[in-house]
Design brief:
about 550 residues, alpha/beta, 12 helices, binds adenosine-5'-triphosphate, binds magnesium ion
Amino acid sequence: MNTNTTDKPHNFIEKIINDDLVNKTVSQIKTRFPPEPNGYLHIGHAKSICINFGLAQDFGGTCNLRFDDTNPVKEDIEYVESIKKDVQWLGFQWDGDIRFTSQYFDQLHDWAVELIKQSKAYVCDLTQEEGRELRGTLKEPGQNSPYRDRSVAENLSLFAKMRAGDFAEGHCSLRAKIAMNSPNIQLRDPVIYRIKHVSHHQTGDTWCIYPSYDFAHGQSDAIEEITHSICTLEFAEHRPLYNWFIENLPVPATPHQYEFSRLNVNYTITSKRKLKLLVDENHVEGWDDPRMPTISGLRRRGFTPESIRTFAKMTGVTKVDGIADVSMLEYAIREDLNENATRAMCVLHPLKVTLTNYPSDKTEILSAAGHPNRDDMGTRSLPFDSELLIDQEDFREAANKKYKRLVIGKRVRLRNAYIIEADEAIKNDQGEIIEVRARIIEDTVGKNPADGIKAKGVIHWVSAKNHVDCDVHLYDRLFTDEAPDAGGKDFLECINPNSLEVVQGCKAEVGLANATEEDYFQFEREGYFKKDEAHSSVDKLVFNRTIGLRDTWDKK
Ligand code: ATP
Ligand code: MG
């Protein structure tokens, strides 16, 4: 058996696991990631995935992927598929088959019957509203339901009728009989089964009663023999209930629940319900809109699995709620892409440059490194000829010394190519510059000029004849407010109206025609980019800007 212990636990959960392995309380750890398939996963879930699968990896255990599908009203198979894809994309593999809580519905039902037989559960005819009123508050104890003392026989018969579909939704529910005066509200006779006349994406119309989250979760952990059931802090209060079910049922194992603080990120929302609203009301293109904090959105934007795993690590595992700075995520992706993205050139706002001393029928194939420090990333071929395109921002008729780009009478180096000197700007009737006439300085590819007059700056370019056309999507943060949904704020009012700028008519180096889903690029001097698979077609490529080269948000 493969079990690892460690001398240096990084956080309190690692310490607990390490102690359990050292003390032989468990021989091998088993964790699970238990999403409800009611939306796409977001960056917060990514953290939970990294923790659960990461612990299993680090300690030589296994991790299950279990869909917590007890609420068929909000769930959909589309979400199941997207979640599987996201987990694998992040670099993790679940143990064996994927699991569904719904696979355990028979067992859960039998355990509910078992509780009734032990006089520990009863059918209650209070409406949800009445039930809530008798529940009490943090300061006031609850009151017993008038149905609490029904006989075992009556409860068994009523529960059978619930199961058979004899009652309308809301007519009654099955509740655990614990203690209405417990200081912990979760223990005040919680509902364990509700009537829902709804088809389920996995079980069809087999069931018209569905277990509550609390009744299903711990028991599913027990069935799967999960050793460490890790969840977010809001479930700490549910832990006594989790344990009560485990203690009162003949479950095959005794899992333990541990809680850590959920990940919140500034300028972002991490609530599936709110993200769904953005999608449903068309504020974004869909769950995978590159501005969304969903895993699928981040993937489409060009974030790497590695950068998300790094970010999850950077934010730590604690019991203290906090808000992580989104610039940490941006830092993680910049670091990764600086190291691993292929270099390329793309001109966003083209301006034609005619080289008057270069033969108009000549094309030279220049070579450039895929990455300045990495030979393993190969070389790129750059066709060079007498008509080039540079960015409009990179030319001025006259400028001071700080402007290290192309100026009439001055020199600039074309990245990976010759030094050129500008002679003249051609304008249209409106006085706009539409072309620059320039000359190459001979024998300056990879060399300084023989006359000793160096170029001060370097600019990017493409051939006007040999390039690929593309559009570029420039993204900014989706919200202008640091805490878009804090303190009752309407997050829809904080949407950044300039979160997407579409730049059409961009010109990229020829190699980008072959860009695939696996490729990450640094467009030199422009930022990090990834091909948008959804928007690209055979006629036109679309690239998403993942992130700029430097953090400029504070300087706006
Ligand atoms: P949401 O509030 O966005 O709907 P959820 O907790 O209801 O999230 P689940 O599908 O139940 O969504 O979550 C699956 C797992 O991911 C749970 O164990 C949950 O604790 C964890 N999780 C959800 N949100 C976060 C977060 N922001 N940070 C860390 N873990 C999270
Ligand atoms: Mg949940």
